[in-house]
Amino acid sequence: MSLFNKPTLKVVVASGNPVKVSAALAGMQKMMPGASIETVSVSVPSGVADQPMTDEETLAGALNRVQNAKEANPLADAWVGIEGGVDYLQGELATFAWVVIQTEDLVGKARSGTFFLPKTVQELVEQGLELGKANDQIFSRINSKQKGGAIGILTDEVLDRKQLYEQAVVLALVPHKNRELYLPETANP
Question: Residues in domain Non-canonical purine NTP phosphatase/PRRC1 (predicted)?
Fold first, then answer.
């Protein structure tokens, strides 16, 4: 059954980070404004480095989080994994996140918007520091990854981490909203 046909939903978000939980809920509420959505936060391992350094590793982290959340809390309508990462594009370090939303029979995936990091932040990440800690050090912040994140700092909160992830949540719901296009066997009985 489609998420979009249920008046009440239980959604497990594979993170203890309040920004990720809030983004998952806000994106789902935008797509399903009439539904009552309960979110459950569960901290599970990503199975990748604390700072994923490639697009592929970041997506693998989001997929792993969803699987681990489903194992930890199997009684839900959907499981959401959000993994932030970085990758090089033409020698510059860019950052983004992957969002994965899984139901019993369908997986939706989407990547957030991407932006480039300042060289000072890039250098600290290259030395092995997690992006959030590098931002805290460079910009004299405390726990910025559970607040506006790098994008919030660099835009003076015109766009924050929650908003960046929220749009990717909406995009990851596209297959769920259009099941007949993503599950061909249901379209052609």
Answer: 14-175
- How many domains in the chain? 1
| H or E stretch at 184 | helix 184-187
Confirm whether 153 is domain-assigned. no
Q: What is the pLDDT of residues 79-95, one digit of tens each?
A: 999 999 999 999 999 99
Answer yes or no: are the C-beta atoms of 103 and 78 closer than 8 Å.
yes
Which among 72, 69, 116 is positioned nearest to 90, based on CA atoms?
116
CATH number of the domain encompassing residue 87 = 3.90.950.10
**Domain of 24, in residue numbers:** 3-114+161-187
Q: What is the pTM of this model?
A: 0.92
Burial of 54 (0-12, 13-18, 19+ CB in 10 A): middle
Other C-beta atoms closer than 10 Å to the C-beta of 136 total: 17
Distance (Å, rounded) from C-alpha 147 to C-alpha 35? 27
